[in-house]
Every structure is written in C-alpha cells, then in structure tokens.
Design goal:
It is a single chain. This protein is mainly alpha-helical. It has two domains: 2-55 and 82-338 and 406-457, Myeloperoxidase, subunit C (Orthogonal Bundle), CATH 1.10.640; 560-766, no CATH class. The strands form four sheets. A three-stranded antiparallel beta sheet has the order 7-9-8. It has a two-stranded antiparallel ribbon with strand order 1-2. It has a two-stranded antiparallel ribbon with strand order 3-4. β8 (675-678) and β9 form a beta hairpin. α5 (147-174) packs parallel to α18. It starts with a helix and ends with a helix. Residues 504-556 form the Myb-like domain. Heme b binds at residue 237. One of its GO terms (cellular component) is nucleosome. It is found in: Chromosome; Nucleus, Nucleolus.
C-alpha cells in the first residue's frame, strides 16, 4: 500500500491540468447504464489553451510544477509556500502527534491537498518530519544560517532525497528485475558505482558517473516538461484496494502483526480519513499499509468506491457532484487528444497489434474487447490497452507504459539544473550532500524516525515491498555488460538502450537530408546545435546527438568507398583509374604522372554526398594527413607509425581498415621518396631528394630501392601495367556488350585478382618488417659489442698507466 500511496505522492508533485469554468455531463448509454453506479455525472473539462503551433493547436496548462521540487509538501505558489512554513529555524508546520496540522475546516496544511486521503497525507507528514530533521542538522553545522537559508537548503535536500528514492527504490520495486535494479543505480551513480562517484564526483560523464551531477542540464533540443502520454500511463488507480486492513502493532506475533480492523477506503479519504488517521496514529498506519499489497494494474480490478467518488478541488474542498473515475479517465485521454493504443505504439516505434490475441492471452478479456470495440483494434483506448496488455515477467506495468517510464525517468534528472550543474556543495551545502548520499531507500527515512518499528516489523529490503516478505537477494548482474550494451545502442539514456532493447530504426531520406543540411549550416560535430535548430528538430526529433554522429560517419565512409572489406579490396584494384577529386583517405598503388606523383588518387564518390565529418576540421587526403602529422608532431628523428596513426584518428574520422591503409601509404610514400624511414620512424625527405625522385620513373625508383635494401619487396617492371585511356574505353565497351553471366564472371575475376594482389602486398610488407627488425637487432647487438670493447680497452689503458 505504501507503493501506491507514493505514486499519488509523486503525481501531486509533478502534474495537474487547469480546469475550465464550465461543466460537462457524461451520460451512460442505455445498454450499459444498469452496470454503472452513476447513470450520469458532471465534471469540469480541461481548459484548452492555444499553443501557436501548427501541429498541436491547443494544449493544457499544468497547475503544478513538473520539476522534482517537493511541491507536494511545500506548495506550488507563494501562498502555498507561506502556509506550510513555521518561520522558525527553517522548519515546516507539524502537529505534536507527528501528523499534519489542519486548518479550521479540517483540511490538512500541506503543499497539495487535492484528492487527499490518509495514506497520501501520511507520506506528506513523514517528509515534513524529514525536512525538519535536516533543518536541525544544518543549524548544528552552519549556525550562521538564518530561517530562510535553513528552509531553502533543507528543501533542496529533501527534494533530492525524494527523487533518489523514486529512482533507485520505488521504480525498482515496480519493475522488479535484477537488470532494472542495476540500470536504475547506473542512472544515479553511473557504471563506476557509488564509491568512485563519492571520491571523484561526476567527472566521467553520464555513462560512467550517472546523470546526477552532470556539468550542465541536457534537454536534447526540447524544453523539459511532462507530457500527456506520461500522464496517461501513470493512471494506475487499480493499485488502490477497496478496504484497508489495520494491524495491531502491540501484537505478540514476531513477523506479521494481526489484523485488528478492516476499514472501507471510502472512510479513509478527505476529512473523515484525516480524523481516522489521527485515531490510528502514524506508526500504526505505516505498519498496516506496509503489510498490505497493492492491487494489480489490470482490467476488471478498478476500485468500486472510485466509481462514485466525491472529488476535491485544489483547496481540498469536496466537490458538489460525485464522479465515476473509470469513465472520466477514458474521457480525459480523448479530450486531451492522447493517441489510441495502436497509434500510441506506432509513435513510440513499437509494433502495433493486428488482433486482440496479440494483446492478451485471456479469452474473457478478448471477448469483452470484441463486445466494446468489435474487430477494429485501432479504436482501442490507451488506458484499456495498457491494462489488458501482457506483462513482462517481474513488471507491475506493461511494456507500452514502460517505454514512457524509461524515457521520463532519465529526463527528470538530466534536464534539471538542481540535479546536474547545481548538484554541488555550494547549492546543497557539504553536509546536505552527505545527507542525500547516505539515503538509499524509503526504509532509511522511516528507520530514522521510527527505528524500533522498522527493527520489529520491516523484514524486507524496501519499504515499498510487503514488509514481512523476504529481503532481496544480492544482485550480481554485470554492470560492465550493461554499460557495453548502452554504448553499442548509441543512446545517451541508459534506460532507453539497454532495457528497451529496441532495434535502431532505419533512417529516412528526410532525416538524411536534414542531417546534411544541418552539417552545411552548423558544421560537422555540432550535433546538439543541429538538434536544437527548429529547422531540423521537427525531422530529427527521434534522434540523439550520438545517432547523428554515427550516421554522419557512416554516410561519409560510404560516400568515400569504404563501405565494406570487399569494396575496399575491389577499390584497391581499380583505384588507379579513378578521377581525381577531394575525397579523403585514398590510396594509390600504381604509377602516377609527374604532376601528382606525391598525391594519392582518391576513390570515386557520388556527387552531392557528404565528405567525412569531423568536429575539428575537414578531411584531406591520406598522404597529406601523414605529412601534417609528422610536421605537427615534430619528434626528433621522425614519428613512428603508431604515433602518426593516433594523431590522424584523433583529428579525423578514419575508415575501419585504416591501420592497413596507413601502413601501405607510408610504404608507398617512402618508395617514391617523399618520406625517409629510419629505425621505424618516418621523416619528410628534403626538397632536393623529392626532386631527384620525380625525375626517375616509378618503376626505376622501386628497382633502385630494391637494390639498396633487402627489406623492400621485389617489384618487376613486367608486373606493373598502367592502362591508357584508349585501353580503358575498350574495356568499358567490352563490358557493355557482356551478358549478365559474363559480367559476373569478369567481376569475380577482378575481385580474385584484387585479393591476390592484396595478399601479395601484405606478405611483402611482413617480410619487410621482419627484415627490418632483424637489421635493428643486429645493429643493437653491434652497438652493445662496441660499448663492451670500448670498456675493456679503457680498463687496459688504466692498468697500464
């Protein structure tokens, strides 16, 4: 029961809809009127406000604050804030029995009193006591703080505790799996865990250090708020029971207290409920609720008393007309234009149902759905669908609702500056942060104020479980595996990648066009700026900054011919015939003219395709990159291959086979005389050396190198054949006249030749490396021998002297 009370405790902190001033009447159809407690009832519509948007013309105003600011106990406006304060040492008003104070009308004095009941006001009282305990702690450590400072700091600490409990305690109990437990803790503490975060803070980013304490809030291009979809999936009144079982805490039973009284829920709401709660007492009510399970979120489980409910206005006063909450909830979703179940799933990129059997295995439910909606599954209301849907094992809610839970769970934290850039000792005080850090569950709060009660009656690990249930088993799930899955998923939200397990959606042509235009406008690497730009956000709203980065890299790689290993191999065979352009990271294996003998011939790229993106600079060709790396590194004696490769990879996007291409390019530039290799280090050759090399045909230069170095691969003149333009035209003419079988055979032969050439080149490179290693070893041995000989000669001269 504490879990469902907490649900209302959170909703009343986050969201409500401003109502219109005129009432509407809902009348039950004649066919079903005999099954309805109320044949008709009146209520107020949600007030529709023009938005100025072409897509959504009207919307509703939230009369509560959507942030985790503790407004459920502090209030949403100045009048509410002033009403709950004692103006003494920063504390809030509380009665002598530990429950809320009441005004002259019998309404609790608290931040939110709309539709209050005993279990709801019980949690409000518990956190008022927690706020006051924090004030005592702050006053002890910061005696210079006045009433206002004590109140403001205590409010921040209390709000953060509420957020933490909801994140790593309540949600875990709602979705009770080891995976969810690990992932929720990652949301707060990160992959490295609580101990590392306590030592270093959030210096490793959201994946390693969690969302709390980020350097700046993240709203992913959309201002934070809570959505109508979120409101809809949080409709879980079926968790409330029809009666509450009051327990005897003086019972001699050691584990489960005996039932003393059964009270109808109708008597536990409003002013009557407050009077009963005062008689029962706070401790007894906590134990009673702790030992009673919540109801299931499923069809045919709606509380009967809520179908003839006297609701409250925002001041806690009874409304004149009772309402049928079950009917009104369906009406609210339709009124606020929340999509029906199937459309809702499509909007969430989930697979819609095509028949009722896709939704549930319960044949009685299938028959009932047929009676209401016929065969048209598109008419199914969202609330009915998420209550009928099959549940994931361990989950109290269905997968459709879970998607929204997952998205908002992270967004509430990462978009709020008080949980990101301002989550520090300057804002919360050092002792305030320590207080927050020690809290891991609601059980810790209850134990602080009722230590004997928890020791006697709370056997479970979480106060949201049934109290006499067994403690949770240790969770041994591999956190590293979760992090790996998150990185592979490419999403910033830990939940939305690992837990959902949804496959990446294929990019549409409109999204690709928007990405290209965004890069042209803002530059590569400005992914968040592109997402925030209204010109592109309407198209790219389903994408994250990581999605944009990955897609741009893939588009750039494909545009430059690096789509696969097979394409790269085939390109090596044909690259010498390609037309020259500005495509980067190209490789030349054949002879070249004098004009561009030092440049690589690029792979062909389709016109209009984007070049490889970089958050730092535009790409140039691979040989120029090598020259740039050696020039900028300025290492004595030159730079080795690893250092050059690291420099290029840090500055530019590199294709998958970059290391092999780099090796071959370095070898080629050395052969043509642009680089000089000494002791596995490369330096740029002098201008005179390059001029001399240009005067020699490529074949002669290669043969000369072969004569002077045993490490160079053997290249015969007959093996090099550079086709002329007429030869290429002749080959193209032959290809046009080929049949499909002949073309396939020719292509296969070309691939085989390319693979053979690559294998031969790789073997030659290995032989060269081995020979060079042997030469270096011999040189080292010679140097050591010379040093030894020199030492012996010196000793002899000393003795002779």
């Amino acid at each position: 029961m504490i879990a469902c009370s907490w649900l209302q405790f959170m909703i009343h902190d986050w969201i409500d809809h401003m109502e219109d001033t005129q009432q509407v009447e809902m009348v039950a159809p004649v066919e079903v009127a005999h099954q309805c407690p109320l044949k008709s009832f009146k209520f107020y519509r949600s007030k529709q406000i023009p938005t100025g948007s072409l897509q959504t013309k009207t919307g509703c105003l939230n009369s509560r604050t959507p942030w985790w600011d503790g407004s459920v106990i502090y209030g949403n406006n100045e009048a509410g804030l002033g009403k709950v304060r004692s103006y003494n040492d920063g504390k809030l008003k509380i009665s002598s029995d530990g429950l809320l104070e009441h005004d002259e009308k019998g309404i609790p004095i608290s931040g939110d009193v709309r539709n209050y009941w005993a279990g709801f006001s019980l949690l409000q009282a518990l956190f008022v006591r927690e706020h006051n305990a924090i004030c005592d702690m702050l006053k002890e450590h910061y005696p210079e703080f006045d009433d206002e400072k004590l109140y403001q700091h205590a409010r921040l600490v209390t709000s953060a505790i509420i957020a933490k409990i909801h994140t790593i305690d309540w949600t875990v109990e709602l979705l009770k799996t080891d995976t969810l437990l690990a992932a929720m803790r990652l949301n707060w503490y990160g992959m490295l865990g609580k101990k590392v975060k306590n030592l270093f803070g959030n210096i490793f980013g959201p994946e390693l250090s969690g969302l709390v304490g980020l350097k700046e809030p993240q709203d992913h291009g959309v201002p934070y708020s809570l959505t109508e979809e979120f409101v809809s999936v949080y409709r879980m009144h079926t968790t409330l029971p029809d009666t509450i079982l009051i327990r005897d805490i003086e019972s001699k039973h050691k584990t489960t207290p005996q039932i003393q009284q059964e009270v109808n829920m109708m008597h536990m709401i409003g002013k009557e409920g407050e009077k009963r709660l005062s008689k029962i007492g706070m401790e007894k009510m906590l134990v009673s609720m702790g030992h009673q399970a919540c109801g299931a979120v499923t069809l045919r489980n709606y509380p009967l008393w809520m179908r003839n409910l006297v609701a409250h206005d925002i001041h806690g006063e009874d409304r004149a007309d009772p309402v049928d909450m079950a009917s009104m909830e369906i009406y609210r979703d339709r009124e606020r234009k929340v999509p029906r179940y199937n459309e809702f799933r499509r909007n969430m990129l989930m697979i819609p149902i095509s028949k009722w059997e896709d939704l549930t295995d319960d044949q009685e439910i299938v028959e009932a759905l047929n009676q209401v909606y016929g065969d048209d599954v598109e008419k199914l209301d969202l609330l009915v669908g998420i209550h009928a849907e099959k549940k994931i094992k361990g989950f109290a809610i269905c997968e459709t609702a879970f998607f929204i839970f997952v998205l908002i769970a992270s967004r509430r934290l990462e978009a709020d500056r008080f949980f990101t850039s301002n989550f520090n000792s300057q804002t919360y005080t050092k002792k305030g942060l320590e207080w927050i850090n020690k809290i891991e569950s609601l059980k810790d709060i209850i134990d602080r104020h009722f230590p004997e009660m928890t020791k006697t009656w709370m056997r479970c690990s979480s106060a949201f479980s049934v109290w006499d249930s067994d403690p949770n088993a240790p969770n041994y799930i591999m956190v590293m595996h979760i992090s790996y899955c998150m990185f592979m998923g490419g999403r910033t939200s830990l939940f939305s990648v690992f837990l959902m397990g949804a496959p990446k959606q294929k990019w549409t042509s409109e999204e690709e066009a928007a990405l290209k235009a965004g890069v042209v406008k803002h530059g590569a690497g400005k992914w968040r700026t592109i997402l925030k730009d209204p010109e592109f956000s309407s198209v790219l709203y389903l994408r994250s900054n990581v999605d944009l980065k990955d897609k741009w890299r893939n588009m750039s790689v494909m545009a430059n011919g690096w789509g696969s290993r097979e394409k790269a191999r085939l390109a090596l065979k044909r690259v010498q015939h390609a037309s020259k352009d500005d495509s980067p990271l190209a490789l030349t294996t054949g002879d070249q003219s004098d004009e561009d003998s030092g440049d690589a011939r690029p792979l062909p790229s389709s016109s209009g395709s984007p070049q490889i993106g970089s958050s730092k600079r535009s790409m140039i060709r691979l040989d120029n990159l090598i020259m740039e790396a050696i020039n900028n590194l300025k290492e004595p004696g030159g730079s080795n291959k690893t250092t050059i490769g690291t420099y290029i990879e840090e500055q530019y996007w590199a294709p998958p086979n970059f290391k092999r291409l780099l090796s071959m390019k370095l070898k080629f530039l050395t052969q043509i005389g642009k680089l000089v290799k000494t002791k596995r280090k490369y330096r740029i050759a002098s201008a005179n050396a390059i001029t001399e090399n240009k005067k020699m045909p490529t074949v002669l230069r290669l043969e000369g190198k072969q004569k002077g170095s045993s490490s160079a691969p053997r290249v015969d003149k007959d093996e090099i054949s550079v086709p002329t333009k007429s030869q290429i035209d002749l080959e193209l003419q032959k290809m046009r006249s080929m049949t499909s079988q002949e073309a396939a055979a020719a292509a296969a032969q070309a691939v085989a030749e390319a693979e053979a050439a690559i294998a031969e080149a790789e073997e030659a490179a290995r032989e060269a490396e081995a020979a060079e290693a042997d030469a270096e070893a011999a040189q080292a041995f010679a140097e050591a021998a010379m040093k030894t000989l020199k030492g012996r000669t010196t000793q002899r001269l000393v003795k002779q002297h």
